Amino acid sequence: MYCETYINLGETYRKALPDNHPDRAITYSNIGDVHRLMDNYEKALSFHQKALNIQENVQCSPLECATTYINLGETYREMKDYSTALTYFEKGLEIREKKLPKNHLDLAVVYHNMAKLYLTRRKYSMAMKNIQQAVEIAQEKLPSTHPHLLEYKETIEKIRKKM
């Protein structure tokens, strides 16, 4: 249902908006993320790249570009292309660190994504550094039972076991 909703929304935007409209980019990135969640990585990359092509050529919010970079990073991470994933995570993180407060939950998400990447690559000190930042933000901003905070704490335990 979720995927169908975004695909239908994409059809609506295709008919109503010009090809290079920033709202189209957001929709493309969202559709790409749905495809990633369904393990359709090639389609995910295609939609994320469409989004990025619009965002890099039209005046749009840097935070929207950051989200697309991070979505690309997560797709490449799941595809096990870790160096490309890290490049996109770093681009997205750089923008978010400039535009958001240091304790913003969107930063915690990127730190967690990077921690998972470093854990997989057996770079445990980098994984720990990133997950500690994610947990610190989440503990400040979220209730102790929030699923994101619990997931971050699970990741920190996985890293501790490997160190």
UniProtKB/TrEMBL annotation:
Show the PROSITE patterns listed in the entry: TPR, TPR_REGION
Point out the coiled-coil segments of this chain. none
Please provide the record's keywords in A-Z order. Repeat, TPR repeat
> Could you tell me which Pfam families the record lists for this protein?
TPR_12
* Repeat region (TPR), residues: 25-58, 66-99, 108-141
The name on file for this protein is Kinesin light chain
